[in-house]
Fold this protein.
Amino acid sequence: MKIAVVGSYGAGLTMRVPKAPAAGETVSGGLFDSGAGGKGSNQAIGAARLGAEVSLLTAVGDDEFGSSARELWRREGVGAEHVVTAGAPTMVGFILVEPSGENRIAIAPGALDELDAAAVESFRAEIASADILVVSMEIPEEAVVAALRAGRASGTRTLLNPAPARPLPEECWPLIDVLTPNQTEAPVLLGLDEEHGLGDEELARALHERTGGTVVITRGGEGALVAQASGITGVPPHPARTVVDTTGAGDSFTAAFAVALAEGQPVDQAVEFAAVAGSHTVSIAGVVPALPTRAQLNALIGNAS
Protein backbone atom coordinates (compact mmCIF):
# COMPACT_ATOMS: atom_id res chain seq x y z
CA MET A 1 0.00 0.00 0.00
CA LYS A 2 1.69 3.18 -1.21
CA ILE A 3 0.59 6.79 -0.89
CA ALA A 4 2.16 9.83 -2.55
CA VAL A 5 1.56 13.20 -0.87
CA VAL A 6 2.03 16.64 -2.44
CA GLY A 7 1.54 19.41 0.07
CA SER A 8 3.06 21.70 2.64
CA TYR A 9 5.44 21.60 5.55
CA GLY A 10 5.70 24.36 8.11
CA ALA A 11 6.76 25.01 11.65
CA GLY A 12 3.74 25.51 13.88
CA LEU A 13 4.12 28.14 16.58
CA THR A 14 1.17 27.64 18.90
CA MET A 15 -0.14 29.79 21.72
CA ARG A 16 -2.99 28.61 23.94
CA VAL A 17 -4.86 31.69 25.09
CA PRO A 18 -7.77 32.37 27.48
CA LYS A 19 -9.57 33.90 24.49
CA ALA A 20 -8.68 35.08 21.00
CA PRO A 21 -7.79 38.79 21.01
CA ALA A 22 -10.01 41.27 19.20
CA ALA A 23 -8.49 43.85 16.84
CA GLY A 24 -6.05 46.02 18.77
CA GLU A 25 -6.38 43.90 21.93
CA THR A 26 -3.52 42.19 23.80
CA VAL A 27 -4.36 39.00 25.68
CA SER A 28 -1.96 37.75 28.36
CA GLY A 29 -1.79 34.37 30.10
CA GLY A 30 -0.99 32.30 27.03
CA LEU A 31 1.08 29.09 26.90
CA PHE A 32 3.54 28.73 24.00
CA ASP A 33 4.64 25.60 22.15
CA SER A 34 6.26 24.90 18.79
CA GLY A 35 6.23 21.88 16.56
CA ALA A 36 6.02 20.47 13.07
CA GLY A 37 3.03 21.28 10.89
CA GLY A 38 1.83 21.80 7.34
CA LYS A 39 -1.02 19.81 5.83
CA GLY A 40 1.12 17.71 3.48
CA SER A 41 3.59 16.69 6.16
CA ASN A 42 0.85 15.99 8.70
CA GLN A 43 -1.03 13.82 6.20
CA ALA A 44 2.13 11.96 5.21
CA ILE A 45 3.03 11.20 8.83
CA GLY A 46 -0.56 10.23 9.60
CA ALA A 47 -0.63 7.76 6.71
CA ALA A 48 2.78 6.31 7.64
CA ARG A 49 1.66 5.71 11.23
CA LEU A 50 -1.30 3.78 9.87
CA GLY A 51 0.96 1.43 7.94
CA ALA A 52 1.31 3.00 4.50
CA GLU A 53 4.52 3.42 2.51
CA VAL A 54 4.56 7.18 2.00
CA SER A 55 6.50 9.51 -0.30
CA LEU A 56 6.26 13.28 0.29
CA LEU A 57 6.82 16.25 -1.99
CA THR A 58 7.05 19.65 -0.32
CA ALA A 59 9.58 22.48 0.05
CA VAL A 60 11.55 23.69 3.07
CA GLY A 61 14.25 26.27 3.65
CA ASP A 62 17.93 25.72 4.31
CA ASP A 63 17.39 26.55 7.96
CA GLU A 64 16.83 25.00 11.36
CA PHE A 65 13.14 24.37 10.70
CA GLY A 66 14.00 22.55 7.44
CA SER A 67 16.63 20.38 9.14
CA SER A 68 14.17 19.49 11.89
CA ALA A 69 11.59 18.52 9.27
CA ARG A 70 13.95 16.11 7.53
CA GLU A 71 14.84 14.49 10.83
CA LEU A 72 11.14 14.16 11.67
CA TRP A 73 10.37 12.44 8.37
CA ARG A 74 13.30 10.08 8.90
CA ARG A 75 11.96 9.08 12.33
CA GLU A 76 8.42 8.63 11.03
CA GLY A 77 9.43 6.58 8.00
CA VAL A 78 8.22 9.12 5.41
CA GLY A 79 10.15 9.13 2.13
CA ALA A 80 11.46 12.69 1.67
CA GLU A 81 14.07 12.22 -1.07
CA HIS A 82 12.24 14.57 -3.42
CA VAL A 83 11.60 17.39 -0.92
CA VAL A 84 12.85 20.70 -2.36
CA THR A 85 15.35 22.84 -0.47
CA ALA A 86 14.27 26.37 -1.36
CA GLY A 87 16.00 29.73 -1.12
CA ALA A 88 13.26 31.16 1.12
CA PRO A 89 12.74 30.23 4.79
CA THR A 90 10.62 27.27 5.81
CA MET A 91 6.92 28.04 6.14
CA VAL A 92 5.80 29.21 9.58
CA GLY A 93 2.25 29.09 10.92
CA PHE A 94 1.09 31.05 13.97
CA ILE A 95 -1.76 29.27 15.76
CA LEU A 96 -4.02 30.61 18.50
CA VAL A 97 -6.01 27.97 20.38
CA GLU A 98 -8.89 28.87 22.70
CA PRO A 99 -9.98 26.77 25.72
CA SER A 100 -12.82 25.29 23.61
CA GLY A 101 -10.25 23.84 21.22
CA GLU A 102 -11.18 26.21 18.39
CA ASN A 103 -8.21 27.66 16.55
CA ARG A 104 -7.12 30.60 14.38
CA ILE A 105 -4.12 30.27 12.07
CA ALA A 106 -1.95 32.74 10.11
CA ILE A 107 0.69 31.48 7.67
CA ALA A 108 3.89 32.86 6.08
CA PRO A 109 4.43 30.45 3.11
CA GLY A 110 8.13 31.14 2.49
CA ALA A 111 9.72 28.11 0.81
CA LEU A 112 6.39 26.73 -0.36
CA ASP A 113 6.11 29.53 -2.91
CA GLU A 114 9.00 27.83 -4.74
CA LEU A 115 7.17 24.51 -5.13
CA ASP A 116 6.40 24.44 -8.85
CA ALA A 117 5.52 22.16 -11.76
CA ALA A 118 9.17 21.22 -12.26
CA ALA A 119 9.32 19.88 -8.71
CA VAL A 120 6.19 17.84 -9.36
CA GLU A 121 7.76 16.45 -12.54
CA SER A 122 10.67 15.13 -10.48
CA PHE A 123 8.11 13.36 -8.27
CA ARG A 124 6.17 11.80 -11.17
CA ALA A 125 7.56 8.29 -10.69
CA GLU A 126 6.43 8.29 -7.05
CA ILE A 127 2.95 9.38 -8.12
CA ALA A 128 2.79 6.70 -10.80
CA SER A 129 3.75 3.92 -8.38
CA ALA A 130 1.28 4.98 -5.67
CA ASP A 131 -2.15 3.52 -4.96
CA ILE A 132 -3.45 6.99 -4.20
CA LEU A 133 -2.17 10.57 -4.56
CA VAL A 134 -3.10 13.07 -1.83
CA VAL A 135 -2.87 16.77 -2.69
CA SER A 136 -3.66 19.71 -0.41
CA MET A 137 -3.74 23.43 -1.18
CA GLU A 138 -1.25 25.24 1.08
CA ILE A 139 1.00 25.20 -1.99
CA PRO A 140 0.98 27.21 -5.25
CA GLU A 141 -1.85 26.51 -7.67
CA GLU A 142 0.75 25.53 -10.29
CA ALA A 143 1.88 22.63 -8.13
CA VAL A 144 -1.68 21.55 -7.31
CA VAL A 145 -2.64 21.41 -10.99
CA ALA A 146 0.59 19.69 -12.02
CA ALA A 147 0.18 17.02 -9.32
CA LEU A 148 -3.42 16.28 -10.27
CA ARG A 149 -2.44 16.08 -13.95
CA ALA A 150 0.38 13.68 -13.12
CA GLY A 151 -2.00 11.51 -11.13
CA ARG A 152 -4.54 11.39 -13.92
CA ALA A 153 -1.87 10.70 -16.58
CA SER A 154 -0.43 7.81 -14.56
CA GLY A 155 -3.79 6.31 -13.64
CA THR A 156 -3.26 6.88 -9.91
CA ARG A 157 -6.39 7.67 -7.90
CA THR A 158 -6.35 11.36 -6.91
CA LEU A 159 -7.60 12.77 -3.61
CA LEU A 160 -7.75 16.55 -3.23
CA ASN A 161 -8.06 17.91 0.28
CA PRO A 162 -9.05 21.49 -0.63
CA ALA A 163 -7.60 23.30 2.35
CA PRO A 164 -7.19 26.18 2.58
CA ALA A 165 -10.04 26.50 0.09
CA ARG A 166 -10.06 28.75 -2.95
CA PRO A 167 -12.02 28.52 -6.21
CA LEU A 168 -10.53 25.80 -8.42
CA PRO A 169 -9.44 26.33 -12.02
CA GLU A 170 -11.86 24.66 -14.43
CA GLU A 171 -9.10 22.33 -15.63
CA CYS A 172 -8.82 20.80 -12.13
CA TRP A 173 -12.34 19.44 -11.78
CA PRO A 174 -12.07 16.41 -14.11
CA LEU A 175 -8.71 15.48 -12.57
CA ILE A 176 -10.18 14.82 -9.10
CA ASP A 177 -11.35 11.32 -8.15
CA VAL A 178 -12.03 12.11 -4.47
CA LEU A 179 -12.69 15.54 -2.95
CA THR A 180 -12.78 16.12 0.84
CA PRO A 181 -13.92 19.66 1.79
CA ASN A 182 -15.43 20.63 5.10
CA GLN A 183 -18.65 22.66 5.37
CA THR A 184 -16.80 25.97 5.07
CA GLU A 185 -14.59 24.95 2.17
CA ALA A 186 -17.34 23.43 -0.02
CA PRO A 187 -19.04 26.70 -1.09
CA VAL A 188 -15.66 28.43 -1.59
CA LEU A 189 -14.67 25.77 -4.12
CA LEU A 190 -17.85 26.50 -6.04
CA GLY A 191 -17.22 30.25 -6.00
CA LEU A 192 -20.32 30.94 -3.88
CA ASP A 193 -20.71 33.91 -1.54
CA GLU A 194 -21.68 33.65 2.12
CA GLU A 195 -25.38 34.08 1.31
CA HIS A 196 -25.51 31.11 -1.07
CA GLY A 197 -28.33 29.45 0.87
CA LEU A 198 -27.44 25.88 -0.13
CA GLY A 199 -27.55 23.00 2.33
CA ASP A 200 -24.77 20.46 2.71
CA GLU A 201 -26.52 17.90 0.50
CA GLU A 202 -26.95 20.45 -2.28
CA LEU A 203 -23.29 21.44 -1.99
CA ALA A 204 -22.21 17.79 -2.07
CA ARG A 205 -24.35 17.16 -5.15
CA ALA A 206 -22.99 20.23 -6.93
CA LEU A 207 -19.39 19.22 -6.23
CA HIS A 208 -20.05 15.66 -7.37
CA GLU A 209 -21.46 17.00 -10.64
CA ARG A 210 -18.29 19.07 -11.15
CA THR A 211 -15.85 16.20 -10.56
CA GLY A 212 -17.85 13.13 -11.52
CA GLY A 213 -16.07 11.47 -8.61
CA THR A 214 -16.59 10.94 -4.89
CA VAL A 215 -17.20 13.94 -2.63
CA VAL A 216 -16.97 13.73 1.16
CA ILE A 217 -18.09 16.83 3.08
CA THR A 218 -16.86 16.60 6.66
CA ARG A 219 -19.18 18.20 9.22
CA GLY A 220 -17.40 17.93 12.55
CA GLY A 221 -19.75 16.65 15.23
CA GLU A 222 -22.42 15.96 12.60
CA GLY A 223 -20.36 13.35 10.78
CA ALA A 224 -19.95 13.46 7.01
CA LEU A 225 -21.91 13.41 3.77
CA VAL A 226 -20.75 11.20 0.90
CA ALA A 227 -21.86 12.00 -2.66
CA GLN A 228 -21.32 9.37 -5.35
CA ALA A 229 -23.00 8.34 -8.58
CA SER A 230 -25.28 6.11 -6.48
CA GLY A 231 -26.54 9.07 -4.42
CA ILE A 232 -25.83 10.84 -1.14
CA THR A 233 -25.38 9.03 2.15
CA GLY A 234 -24.64 10.22 5.66
CA VAL A 235 -21.88 8.80 7.85
CA PRO A 236 -22.38 9.35 11.60
CA PRO A 237 -19.64 10.98 13.69
CA HIS A 238 -17.41 9.12 16.10
CA PRO A 239 -17.75 11.22 19.26
CA ALA A 240 -14.50 12.36 20.85
CA ARG A 241 -14.03 11.55 24.52
CA THR A 242 -12.98 15.17 24.98
CA VAL A 243 -12.06 18.08 22.68
CA VAL A 244 -8.65 19.59 23.44
CA ASP A 245 -7.40 20.87 20.07
CA THR A 246 -9.08 20.66 16.65
CA THR A 247 -6.00 21.82 14.70
CA GLY A 248 -5.00 18.45 13.21
CA ALA A 249 -8.42 16.84 12.84
CA GLY A 250 -8.76 17.42 9.10
CA ASP A 251 -5.26 16.13 8.33
CA SER A 252 -5.79 13.04 10.47
CA PHE A 253 -9.11 12.37 8.72
CA THR A 254 -7.54 12.78 5.28
CA ALA A 255 -4.60 10.49 6.08
CA ALA A 256 -6.80 7.73 7.45
CA PHE A 257 -9.28 8.07 4.59
CA ALA A 258 -6.48 7.76 2.03
CA VAL A 259 -5.06 4.69 3.78
CA ALA A 260 -8.46 3.01 3.91
CA LEU A 261 -9.10 3.72 0.22
CA ALA A 262 -5.64 2.43 -0.70
CA GLU A 263 -6.47 -0.78 1.19
CA GLY A 264 -9.58 -1.16 -0.96
CA GLN A 265 -12.19 -0.34 1.67
CA PRO A 266 -15.56 0.88 0.35
CA VAL A 267 -15.95 4.67 0.56
CA ASP A 268 -18.50 4.73 3.40
CA GLN A 269 -16.42 2.32 5.45
CA ALA A 270 -13.28 4.37 4.73
CA VAL A 271 -15.06 7.52 5.94
CA GLU A 272 -16.04 5.77 9.18
CA PHE A 273 -12.41 4.74 9.72
CA ALA A 274 -11.27 8.31 9.05
CA ALA A 275 -13.85 9.69 11.48
CA VAL A 276 -12.35 7.58 14.26
CA ALA A 277 -8.92 9.00 13.43
CA GLY A 278 -10.22 12.57 13.56
CA SER A 279 -11.97 11.89 16.86
CA HIS A 280 -8.76 10.57 18.38
CA THR A 281 -6.77 13.57 17.17
CA VAL A 282 -8.98 16.29 18.67
CA SER A 283 -8.59 14.71 22.12
CA ILE A 284 -4.83 15.39 22.24
CA ALA A 285 -2.96 18.70 22.17
CA GLY A 286 -0.78 19.42 19.15
CA VAL A 287 -0.88 17.88 15.68
CA VAL A 288 1.93 15.36 15.20
CA PRO A 289 1.62 14.01 18.78
CA ALA A 290 -2.11 13.51 18.15
CA LEU A 291 -1.88 11.57 14.87
CA PRO A 292 -2.91 7.99 15.74
CA THR A 293 -1.16 4.69 15.15
CA ARG A 294 -3.03 1.73 13.72
CA ALA A 295 -3.11 0.07 17.12
CA GLN A 296 -4.72 3.14 18.70
CA LEU A 297 -7.42 3.26 16.02
CA ASN A 298 -8.08 -0.46 16.25
CA ALA A 299 -8.56 -0.07 20.01
CA LEU A 300 -11.04 2.77 19.53
CA ILE A 301 -12.94 0.85 16.85
CA GLY A 302 -13.05 -2.21 19.11
CA ASN A 303 -14.38 -0.19 22.04
CA ALA A 304 -17.11 1.32 19.88
CA SER A 305 -18.34 -2.03 18.54
About this structure: The chain has ten helices and 15 strands.
